[in-house]
Amino acid sequence: MSMTVTAPEHLAGGPLLPQERRLVTSIPGPLSEQWIARKQAAVSSGVGTMMPVYAVAAGGGVVVDVDGNSLIDLGSGIAVTNVGNADPFVTEAVIEQVRRFTHTCFTITPYDGYVEVAEALNRLTPGDHEKRTALFNSGAEAVENAIKIARYYTGKSAVVAFDHGYHGRTNLTMGLTAKAMPYKAGFGPFAPDIHRAPMSYPYRDGLSGAEAAERAIHMMERQIGSDRIAAIIIEPIQGEGGFIVPAAGFLPALQTWANENGVVFIADEVQTGFARTGRMFASEDEGVVPDLITLAKGIAGGLPLAAVTGRAEIMDAPHAGGLGGTYGGNPIATAAALGALRAYVEHDLLARARELEGIIRDELTALQSRDARIGDIRGRGAMMAIELVDADGRPDAALTGRVAKHCHTAGVIVLTCGTDGNVIRLLPPLSISDALLREGIGVIAEALAANAA
Questions:
Q1: Which residues form the signal peptide (predicted)?
Q2: Measured between alpha carbons, how far is 105 from 398 in angstroms, rounded to an integer?
Q3: What is the pLDDT of residues 250-275, one digit of tens each?
Q4: d(Cα 226, Cα 285) in Å, to the nearest integer?
C-alpha cells in the first residue's frame, strides 16, 4: 500500500521554519520507522544511513522529520549546505532555470550558466594566473579528472596521496583514499601507481610543518622518485580522515617541492571550499596556490556540481573531448551555483564562518577543561572537531559512537570521522543561529556526561 508523506503547511518554507530543537516523538518516530522498513525492503543494504529519521523540510539550522521532530543540524549534509537549505538566491535561480530548460548536455549544445560558473571559479580560486575550469557532478569525479589532467600534462603516472586522506568512492579515488572500512573493503583491486605519504598530524606526531614536510618529501624522493610523480593531492584540512589541520608550513613546503620538481600540486577542497573554514578556500590560509583545485559540496547549495579549476596550460593539455560527461555542469546545478556564490557575498558568510568558529572553540574549550577525554580540538571556521581518547590517550571509537548516538536520539545531527573512528566533527550550516549552535554543543556535553566512565 502506498504511503505519501508531506510536510505540514507551516513547515513548507525552509528558511521560515521555527529555529528550535523540538522532539514530539522518540527518535525514530513511528512514520520514520515505516520509512526505515520500506528502505530496507527497497534499497541496497550497501547504502547505509546515519540518522534514523526521514526529512521533509530543512532551513536555517534545523532539519524537520516526517514525525514533526525538529533537529539541530550540525552536519550540513556533509558540508554541502553551507548557505543553508533553500537559500532564496539558490532556489530562485533554480526555479528560473527549470522553467527555461533542464538539460541539453554542455558538450552537445552549450549554455551560458556553465561558462559563468567557470568564469567565477577562475576569478575566485587562489592565484592571479590564467585559469581554466571543467565542471562535473561529484567530488570524486572532480578528483578523478584532476588526476587524468595531471597525468596527461606531465606524461607521468605516479600519484601521491596522504595518510588519513579521503578523495572519493570511484575506483581511482578509492585507491587515493586511506581508510579501508567502509570505503574500500572488498572493492579492490584499485587503480595502479598510487602511493601514500605521511601526513602532518600535530596532535599525534608532534612535528613542525617543516619537519613533517621533510619526512614526506624524503619518502617521495626515495621510494617513488620525483621523475615519476605526476601529482600530489592533499586536502588542506583533512575531512573524513579526522579534520586534521597540518602544522603551519607543511602545505607551502609541499607546494614548493612540487613546483621545483615538475609535479602538479592538487588541493582537494571538496569539503573545505566555499567559506567553510572562514576563507573562500582553505588553501588561502597559508598563501598556497594550487596548480589544480578540486571543488564540490558547498559549490551549489545542495545540487550536484563539481569542478576542477587550475592553471590554463595544465587544464588545456588534454585533447578536445577528453573531458566531459552527460550531466557535468548541468544547467540547473550551474544556476544553483551562481545563486550560492551570490549568497556567500550577500550574506557575508566568510565572516559568519569565523564567528561560528569563535562560538564553537569557546564552548569546546570549556568542555575540554572539564573532560580529559577530549584529547584535541581542531579545525577552522565552521569545520571543527574533537578527538576523543581514553585515559591512556588512545583513540576511543566506542565512546565516540555512543556520544553520536546519544546526540541523534536527543535531536542533534552530528557526524563522526577519523581513521580510528574517534572524532566528532561539527559542520553547521553558516545560516545557523548562535543559540541553536550553543544548544547543539550543549547536547554533545550531555552525551559525554551520560557516557562517563
A1: none
A2: 47
A3: 999 999 999 999 999 999 999 999 99
A4: 27
Q: CATH fold of 89-346, please? A: Aspartate Aminotransferase; domain 2 (3.40.640)
- CB atoms under 10 Å from CB of 124, counted, come to 16
The structural domains of the chain, with segments of one domain joined by +, span 11-86+349-450, 89-346
CA pair distance 368, 443, nearest whole angstrom: 14
Considering only CA atoms, which of 258, 260, 299, 266 is closest in space to residue 283? Answer: 266
Residue 4 to residue 200: CA distance in whole angstroms? 50
pLDDT tier at 16 (50, 70, 90 boundaries)? confident
pLDDT, mean of residues 38-45? 97
Domain 11-86+349-450 top-level CATH class: alpha beta
What is the per-residue pLDDT across 164-187, written as a single tens digit (0 to 9) for each?
999 999 999 999 999 999 999 999
pLDDT (tens digit per residue) in 305-346: 999 999 999 999 999 999 999 999 999 999 999 999 999 999
Residue 144: C-alpha distances to residues 47, 51, 71, 119 (Å): 22, 29, 35, 22
Query: Which residue shows C-alpha cell 554541502?
Result: 80
Place of cell 594550487: 290
Max CA pair span of the chain: 65
Amino acid at 94: V
**3-class SS of residue 43:** coil
pTM: 0.94
